[in-house]
Amino acid sequence: VGGADVFDANGNVITIVDQLDVKTPVIITTPINLATEYRLGFEFTLNYSPYKWWKLNSNFNFFRNQTNGDFVYTNFNKVVIKQNFDNTAYSWFTRLTSKITLPYKIDWQTNMTYNGPQNNAQGRSLGVYSANLGFSKDILKDKGTLALNVQDVFNSRKRIYETNLPQLNSYSEMQWRLRQINISFTYRFNKKKSDREKPKREGGDDSDFQG
User: Fold this and answer.
1) Contacts of 69 (CB under 8 A, 6+ apart)
2) Has residue 35 been placed in a domain?
3) Number of domains within the chain
4) What is the DSSP string of 99-111?
5) Deepest in the core among 20, 53, 75, 181, taking most CB within 10 A?
6) Helices marked H in 29-170 — which ranges?
7) Model confidence over 70-121: pLDDT tens digits?
8) Does residue 203 form part of some domain?
């Protein structure tokens, strides 16, 4: 069991700005360095092994995200607009990793992650969950490893946004890649696999604090 308090301050933070062209209408999304960001949070970790063949590792983060900044631009009607991006939001995310040794020394690892919803100056991002699975078996006197990995089991690893502008509300989803299934074989010449050489299959792609 472990815990930690975290504080972080950053200047010129990249902020996603949405602008509406009322003539089309089209939403123009642009990343801009305009804000100062302060993050304060708490991290809690827990390692637990209910049986010799089953290990659990969990991580929970709760954080407060404060953003300060103004954006001045000329819109599509040639009108100078000043928009305030001051915003304070609370959110959380959690990660759970399960490692099980099956009969015949087959390793089974599951990694599950959930990112909670978070508000921003122009809308909010919705909560997202995802899971990865991995199976591996050492063969050929531990010189070879046969592995099966499934990335994003539920095909749910997406960025989901709700944008609220004065003239328009929108909903959008962004997904970098679909579910992937990989089968691999690794052979080590002149040496066996030690504990240090065992590949990590946790499959997490999330940072400690989600923006």
Assistant:
1) 13, 15, 34, 35, 36, 84, 85, 86
2) yes
3) 1
4) EEEEGGGEEEEEE
5) 20
6) none
7) 878 777 677 787 878 888 999 999 999 999 999 999 999 999 999 999 998 8
8) no
